[in-house]
Amino acid sequence: MKQSAALAVQLAEAARIVAHVASGGSLAEGMDKTREDSRGALIDLTHETLRRYGRGQAIVVQLSRRGRPDAVIEALLWTALYALESGRYSEHTAVDEAVKACGLLEQWPAKGYVNGLLRSFLRQRTALEAQLANELEARYQHPLWWIDLLRRAYPTEWESALAAGNTHPPMTLRVNRRRIDIDAYQARLTSENIAGRRLGAEGLLLENPLPVDRLPGFAAGDVSVQDFGAQRAAHCLDLRSGQRVLDACAAPGGKTAHMLELADVALTAVDVDVTRVARIGATLDRLGLRAETLNGDALQPQQWWDGRPFDRILADVPCSASGIARRRPDIKWLRRANDLARFADQQRNLLVALWRVLAPGGKLLYATCSIFPEENEAVVAAFVASEKTARQLPLPDGARAQWLPDAEHDGFYYALIQKQT
Fold this sequence. Notes:
By secondary structure, the chain is an alpha/beta fold. 46% of the residues lie in helices and 15% in strands.
C-alpha cells in the first residue's frame, strides 16, 4: 500500500475512534479494535487530535458554512487539521487523503465539504489564528471549566500547567536498585546511544522515548517505566524493613514494585479489577519481587482483610486523572466539572475505610494523579478535621504536596497522614 493510500485508511480509522471518544466512549476501547500494524500511526493521529481539545472544534465552527456536520465527518476534519498542522505530510497529500477517507467512511456526499473546508483553512490560516487566540478553549486546548478551576487554584502557574498538558509526556525509567546501580544502568544506556539524565534516586529521564523492548535489561527486571511524579509515592511512605504494608487500588503495580525495591516489607496489593490484579503479578514476576495480591474492594476491607493492622498504607485513590491527561487525552473530553464531587465522595469513603485497617502510629499516604484541589487538599483537610486520630505530616522528601505537570513529570498530589495513638 502506498503511503498516501495508507494515510486515507489511517484518517478514516482515526476519525471513527475520535468520534467514539467525542460521544462519550473511551480511547482505550476504540484503540482495542485496531490492527497491530497500524497502531503507531493511529496513536499519533488520535492522541494528538484529542490533545488539541477546542482547537479543531473552533476551526470547523469558524469555517463551516452548512452548520455542524455528521459526527464522524466532524471527527475526520479535526484529525485532518492535525495532520495538516503536524508537518508530517504535504498539504496536498493531507487534503486529498482526507477526501478519500470520506469514501472509506461511506460518507461520499461529504467529499466536497471536507475538501472545501480544509482548503479554506489553508487560505485563511493567519486570520484564523488571531480569532482562535481570543477563544479560551481553542487557545489553551482544555475545557473551559478545567481552565477556570486551574486559574483560580494556581494564579501564577495555571497557564504553564495547561501548556504542559498539551505536550507529549516524558518517558522516565525507574532503576531497580535490587538488581543494578543507577550509575551502572545509565552507563549501559550510554553504551547503546540512549541519552538520559538523572532524576531523583532511581529515575532516568530519556531524551527521546523508545519502545520498552529497546531498553537494556527491561525483560530481566533491571528497569521499569514510571513517571517521576509517581516515583515520589514510595519515598513519601517512610518505609522500614519488616513493616506490614498495604497498597490499596494497586494495579497495575508500579508503585507496589517500587516499594518492594526500596525496603524488605510484607506487602499486600489489593485491586477491585481482577484482570488488573493479574497485571500486578506479571509486573512483580518480571522484577523478581513477591507480594500478596488480592482481588478486593478497598471500600470493603472486611471482605479480604485478615485482621492484622498495617504499618503503612498507600491509598492511590481513583480520581479525575487530570494530572495525566497528556497520557490519556480522552480525559479532557470525558470529564465534567460535576465529576469532581463524585470522586471526592469516593475518596473520602476510601480514607474512612482504610483508616480502620491502619495500625496506631501507622502512616497512610493519600495519592492522586489529579491537579484539582477539590480532590486533593479539600479531601484531606475534611478527613483530618473529622477524624480525631488523624494528623497530617510534612512529606519526607520536603517537596510541595501538589506537583503540576511539566517537562519532567506528570501532575500528582500526596499527603501523609499519621494515626495517633
